[in-house]
Amino acid sequence: MSKVYHHPVQIYYEDTDHSGVVYHPNFLKYFERAREHVIDSDKLARLWNEHGLGFAVYKANMTFQDGVEFAEICDIRTTFTLDGKYKTLWRQEVWRPGATRAAVIGDIEMVCLDKEKRLQPVPEEILRSMMDE
């Protein structure tokens, strides 16, 4: 298991439904941004442009334990593990300010694919750089 990575997310009015609570699909966007910060945007772009490799969500499971509201700044806490040579498992949690438990928990499975959408091993250089951080 990796260390815990932290990524702050400001909740804007546009993220919410009519009641001022975050519309549930938006959590997938927050999780995606946090994962991109763990891996690094430049490394992802280089991986795609130079090697034709990228990552795709294979499976996502989300548990909603508390509503997240407009104007809050939440902490997205992310950990990951390698599951075989093609897949990474990500645990991502949304923490509201001062909370005693995560508001939302996401368990995301990512696979590495080439441009033809064939499974490829997760590049060692990417794993190494994420673990060294």
UniProtKB/TrEMBL annotation:
Keyword Ubl conjugation in record: no
Database matches in InterPro entries: HB-CoA_thioesterase_AS, HotDog_dom_sf, YbgC/YbaW
**PROSITE patterns assigned:** 4HBCOA_THIOESTERASE
Q: Which residues cross the membrane?
A: none
Keywords assigned by UniProt?
A: Hydrolase
Tell me the protein family, please: Belongs to the 4-hydroxybenzoyl-CoA thioesterase family.
Under which name does UniProt file this protein?
Thioesterase
Identify the species of origin.
Photobacterium alginatilyticum
